[in-house]
Amino acid sequence: MAGMRIAVTGSTGLIGSALVRSLQGDGHQVVRLVRQRSRTGAQPDGTVGVGWNPYLMQIDAAGLAGVDAVVHLAGAGVGDRRWTDAYRREIRDSRVLGTETLVAALTRLEEPPKVLVSASAVGIYGQTADQLVDESAPTGSDFLAEVCLEWEAAARPAADAGIRVVHPRTGLVLDPAGGAGARLLPLFKLGLGGRLGGGGQYWSLISLADEVAALRFVIDHPELSGPVNLAGPSPVTNRELTEELARQLGRPAVFAVPEWALRAVLGEMAVEVVGSHRVVPTALLAAGFEFRDADVSAIVAAALGRR
Q: Which domain holds residue 167?
């Protein structure tokens, strides 16, 4: 994809900021959707700011004119706070209202973008235990699964309007700059790491580099639409990840955290820590995507800056 104008929401987050750097590095113009009015217009980093407020369902639609693709990543962090009733609403509204706002603007454009990459997550499958699942699997019924279902459904009017819609269902992006990696890696470096809960739960990992490459891949491959799992081809258990982190850092990993303690500290959110998602990227692989970091050793090495 050469010389494109690409709009990105959630552009200051872990994935969004890495995606913006990658796109700009290849000469694409990036349009950032920003909530601060003072940041609309040309930005010092060469991007263009377009104002929006997803909670009030407001957006400067004119600023989206001429975009070739949109990557929609915005949403309140699932692990940022305890899941109070208020924060559960924020998790849901930040995704669903934001998507509805964006899609309404895109479908009103005289020339809509060719593709909308509207984020989702592997949590849509619910807890899969040790069952291997891909994009053909049924969806779950827990809180995050229901949020993901609403999130994806909110983009349906874009598909009805003829825009190719892709839902990248992302797994656990392991990177020290954000997400779970920002909490786990410092503990392991201090020798305080250990398995969480029983350790037998599966985590569907992906490196930040592969996450960004996969997002760009789905933009450039028109045969891809609907759900596309963004997770490495080899899901691992929490115990296997723990052992690999300890091995590469040369640190012990003996401080196991029991499930009851996780529930006491994290509340309902603990289900995502001790729960199991064993997800594989069938659609990506079938389309010819090649992972740079295809196993836990490579993913950990990338997260530690050793690749």
A: 5-171+207-231+280-285
